[in-house]
Amino acid sequence: MNIAQFIDHTILKPTTLIKDIEKVCNDALQYKFCAVCIPPPLIKTARNFLEGSNIKVATVIGFPFGYSAVEAKIAEIVLAMVDGADELDIVINLVALKNNDWTYLANEINHIMPVIKSKQKTVKIIIESGVLTDEEIIKCCELYGAAGIDYLKTSTGYAEKGATVEAVKLMRAHLPEHIQIKASGGIRDYAFAKELIDAGATRLGCSASVAIAQGESAGAGGY
């Protein structure tokens, strides 16, 4: 398995430097990762470092807590697309979810989707599975599965619990077949990364991407 093709090589810390973006992009070029996932203010910088390559530039919206107003998320999305983002990883409004306001969540996604799809960009919706019940995850699968998103994503990496094999399996069982899954949060070695792929993930959000890719060549027993 060429695990690199599954990976969004990620750096999202609030203190990210331009030299950090350069390193992430150089790693992506060397290992042929699928995408880099970087803070919105640095999209243009990443595009410049990746010029002439097929590596996608992904960024985050409403990150990491998701409770920005819909209008604010749309403004972030528009600016990100203008700057050259190919893929948008959007945190849902978890306050609404935990207060059982599914009408708000439906309204949010219904306003966001036309903006992104008008530019034919990739939509990844982050539900923060580690803080949700199984019932809430299933409801998310139903809502966002019907909305026409490209990926349902487990986590921001900022909650107390990141990706799990169990959450990926649950999402795969309840999502339409054509909607893919991105697992992220706490993926630090090849063995766990492969478990998540075997469970149904088709994209992985990792900051330990190089170690994971090197772990593949060394064999899972190397970690």
Automatic annotation (TrEMBL):
Pathway: Carbohydrate degradation; 2-deoxy-D-ribose 1-phosphate degradation; D-glyceraldehyde 3-phosphate and acetaldehyde from 2-deoxy-alpha-D-ribose 1-phosphate: step 2/2. The active site is at 89 (proton donor/acceptor), 153 (schiff-base intermediate with acetaldehyde), 182 (proton donor/acceptor). Keywords: Cytoplasm, Lyase, Schiff base. The keyword Cytoplasm applies. InterPro entries: Aldolase_TIM, DeoC, DeoC/FbaB/LacD_aldolase, DeoC_typeI. Gene3D superfamilies: Aldolase class I. Its EC number is 4.1.2.4. It catalyses: 2-deoxy-D-ribose 5-phosphate = D-glyceraldehyde 3-phosphate + acetaldehyde. GO terms for molecular function: deoxyribose-phosphate aldolase activity. It is found in: Cytoplasm. The keyword Lyase applies. SUPFAM superfamilies: Aldolase. It is an enzyme of class 4 (lyase). Pfam families: DeoC (PF01791). HAMAP family: DeoC_type1. Belongs to the DeoC/FbaB aldolase family. DeoC type 1 subfamily. Catalyzes a reversible aldol reaction between acetaldehyde and D-glyceraldehyde 3-phosphate to generate 2-deoxy-D-ribose 5-phosphate. This is Deoxyribose-phosphate aldolase.
